[in-house]
From TrEMBL:
A Pfam family this chain is assigned to: G-alpha
Sequence segments annotated as region (Disordered): 1-32
Lineage: Eukaryota, Fungi, Dikarya, Basidiomycota, Agaricomycotina
Any one GO BP annotation for this protein: adenylate cyclase-modulating G protein-coupled receptor signaling pathway
Protein species of origin: Lentinula aciculospora
Name of the protein described by the UniProt record: Guanine nucleotide binding protein, alpha subunit
Positions with a binding annotation for Mg(2+): T310
SMART domains: G_alpha
Domain of life: Eukaryota
Alphabetical list of InterPro entries matching this protein: Gprotein_alpha_su, GproteinA_insert, P-loop_NTPase
Entry's Gene Ontology cellular component terms: cytoplasm; heterotrimeric G-protein complex
UniProt binding sites for GTP: D279, S280, N403, K404, C405, D406
GO MF annotation, one: GTP binding
Keywords associated with the record: GTP-binding, Magnesium, Metal-binding, Nucleotide-binding, Transducer
Length: 492
C-alpha cells in the first residue's frame, strides 16, 4: 500500500509503534479519563440547553382580588423590583395620577363639608350631622358642629380643584372613575360550566379589554407623539401649558389643602360621618408640602401608592433583570376587581403558573363600594372559595397575600373591635397577631374544604405599599413559582 493510500484518521488514532504493555495501559487510562470529562461537559451543555428551553416559556402570574385589594400595587412592586429600567422610564408618567389622587382627596372632603354645612344651617335643635349611618352608630348627644367663616373661605379658595379633577379624569378616561353600583349579586360570576362552554368567545373579548394605567399612558404618549410627528409645535406647547397650569393651581392651593385637612372641626366632621379618607387607596394629603409644588417629581413610593382603577384584564410583560429568573419573561395579569368585572377573569385561568390572591383584611368593617349591602371581608372569603374550588385551577399554585396589615393594625389601635363586624371572632384578643392568625386560619380552612386537589399554597402577611418589605416577599414568591415552573416544564 502506498503512503498516499493510508487514511490519515487511522494514522492519527493508531497506537504508537513499539508500544509496551505499560504504555498502552497508561494511554487507555488517559483516553478513558478524557472521554469521561467530555461526556460530563456534554451532559452539562445538555442540561443548560434544557433549562434554557424551559425558561423560554414565559411565567404567567394572575393577580386576583376585589377592587382596591392591592393587585395593581403588587404589579408595580414586581416592576420596581425586577424591571427597574422600565420602571424608571415610566415613573414620571405617574405625576398626573398623583395630582388626581390628591385633588380627589380634597374634593371628597369638600363634598362632605358642603353637605354638613348645609345641614348645620337648618333650625333643628336635634342636628347631629347628615350622615347616612344608622342611628345606633351616631351619638345623638354630640354637640352641633360649629362651622365658621374660614370654612366657607376654604371651600371658595379650593374651588378650582374641582376643574383640575375633571380635566385629569377626562385625560385618564374610565380608569379614573370609581364604581358606584353593580347589578351582579354573586362574588364570583364564573364556574366550570361557563368556562368550558364559552371559552373561545369570551377569551377574544377579554384579550381586547385594555383599560388600565398601561393603556391610559399609551394613549397620552400617542397624543404627544402624533403632535411631534406632525410638527405641530402649537399642539405640543398647549399640552405642556395644560400640565404647567395644573401644577400651578395645585401649588397655589397648597396652604389651603393643609388647612382643611388639619382643621379640628373638619376632622370631627369626618369622624362623625365615618369617612376614613386616610385609609383609602391613593391618599396623599399627608404629603401636601412635598407634592403640591410646580416641580414635583414622583418617588417610587408615590407610584406604588397612586390609584388608577383597572377595568377588564391588563397584560404586562417584564424581562426580569436579576434574581433567580434573570432573563426570563414574566407575564403578569392585573384584573378589575369589582363584581361586574370578575366574569372576564376565567379565560386567563388556563395555563397560568400561579395566582396571587390579595385579601385586604383591614376591611373587616367596610362595605363594597359597588354594593353597600356586602361586607368586604365576606366578599373576599366567597371569592377565595370560588377560586379554590374551580377545577380549571386545581393544579395551579395559590399564593395568598393577607394585605393591608398596616391599616388593620391602625384600626385596632383606634379601638375598633373585630367582633362587632365579625361575630365569629368572639372574645379573642383584639390585636394584630391574633387577628392575622384568625383570618389566615379561615382562608386555609376554605382551601382545605373546597379545593378539588392538593396543591402548593403559600401565605404572606403584607402591606404592598411598603416597597422594602414587599421586595422581600416577592423574592420568596419568585422562588416558589420558579420551582413550580420548572417542574411543569419537565412534565411537558
Amino acid at each position: 500500500m502506498n503512503a498516499g493510500d493510508v487514511d490519515p484518521l487511522t494514522l492519527a488514532i493508531a497506537p504508537p509503534p513499539n508500544e509496551t504493555p505499560a504504555q498502552r495501559a497508561e494511554r487507555e487510562s488517559a483516553e478513558a479519563e478524557a472521554l469521561r470529562i467530555s461526556n460530563e461537559i456534554d451532559e452539562q451543555i445538555r442540561k443548560e440547553r434544557e433549562n434554557e428551553r424551559k425558561k423560554k416559556r414565559p411565567v404567567k402570574l394572575l393577580l386576583l382580588g376585589q377592587s382596591e385589594s392591592g393587585k395593581t400595587a403588587t404589579l408595580k412592586n414586581f416592576q420596581l423590583t425586577y424591571a427597574k429600567r422600565e420602571w424608571i422610564a415610566e415613573r414620571n408618567n405617574w405625576r398626573a395620577v398623583v395630582f388626581l389622587n390628591l385633588v380627589r382627596n380634597v374634593n371628597n372632603i369638600l363634598d362632605i363639608l358642603t353637605r354638613e354645612m348645609a345641614a348645620a344651617s337648618l333650625p333643628s335643635p336635634d342636628y347631629i350631622g347628615s350622615s347616612d349611618e344608622s342611628s345606633e352608630d351616631i351619638n345623638s348627644s354630640k354637640p352641633r358642629l360649629k362651622f365658621k367663616e374660614k370654612h366657607r373661605l376654604l371651600k371658595l379658595r379650593l374651588g378650582p380643584l374641582r376643574r383640575i379633577q375633571n380635566d385629569l379624569e377626562r385625560r385618564f378616561g374610565a380608569t379614573a372613575l370609581e364604581p358606584q353600583f353593580t347589578s351582579v349579586t354573586t362574588a364570583a360570576p364564573f364556574g366550570s360550566e361557563e368556562i368550558e362552554s364559552s371559552r373561545q368567545t369570551s377569551k377574544e373579548f377579554s384579550i381586547n379589554s385594555r383599560n388600565g394605567w398601561k393603556s391610559a399612558f399609551e394613549k397620552i404618549r400617542a397624543t404627544r407623539a402624533a403632535a411631534r410627528a406632525g410638527g405641530d409645535a402649537n399642539a405640543l406647547r398647549r399640552l405642556q401649558e395644560i400640565d404647567d397650569e395644573i401644577a400651578e393651581v395645585i401649588a397655589g392651593c397648597r396652604e389651603d389643602m393643609k388647612a382643611i385637612w388639619e382643621d379640628l372641626t373638619v376632622r370631627e366632621m369626618l369622624s362623625r360621618s365615618k369617612s376614613r379618607v386616610e385609609d383609602s387607596a391613593g391618599f396623599f394629603l399627608n404629603d401636601v408640602d412635598r407634592i403640591a409644588v410646580s416641580n414635583y417629581e414622583p418617588t417610587d413610593d408615590d407610584v406604588v401608592r397612586a390609584r388608577l382603577r383597572t377595568l377588564g384584564v391588563q397584560e404586562y410583560k417584564f424581562i426580569f433583570e436579576h434574581g433567580r429568573t434573570a432573563g426570563q419573561e414574566w407575564r403578569l395579569y392585573d384584573v378589575g376587581g369589582t363584581r361586574s368585572s370578575r366574569a372576564a377573569w376565567w379565560p386567563y385561568f388556563d395555563d397560568v403558573n400561579a395566582i396571587i390572591f390579595l385579601a385586604p383584611i383591614s376591611c373587616f368593617d367596610e362595605k363594597l363600594a359597588e354594593d353597600r349591602r356586602v361586607n368586604r371581608l365576606e366578599d373576599s372569603f366567597l371569592l377565595w372559595r370560588s377560586v379554590c374550588e374551580c377545577k380549571l385551577l386545581s393544579r395551579t399554585q395559590l399564593i395568598l397575600f393577607l394585605n393591608k396589615c398596616d391599616l388593620l393594625q391602625a384600626k385596632l389601635q383606634r379601638g375598633i373591635r373585630i367582633r362587632s363586624s365579625v361575630p365569629s371572632f368572639g372574645d379573642r384578643r383584639n390585636d394584630i397577631s391574633t387577628a392575622t392568625r384568625y383570618f389566615q386560619q379561615h382562608f386555609k380552612e376554605i382551601l382545605k374544604q373546597y379545593s378539588p386537589a392538593q396543591r402548593s399554597f403559600f401565605v404572606h402577611l403584607t402591606s404592598v405599599i411598603d416597597t422594602r418589605s414587599t421586595a422581600v416577599t416577592l423574592g420568596a414568591v419568585e422562588e416558589s413559582i420558579l420551582r413550580d415552573h420548572l417542574r411543569r416544564a419537565d412534565l411537558m
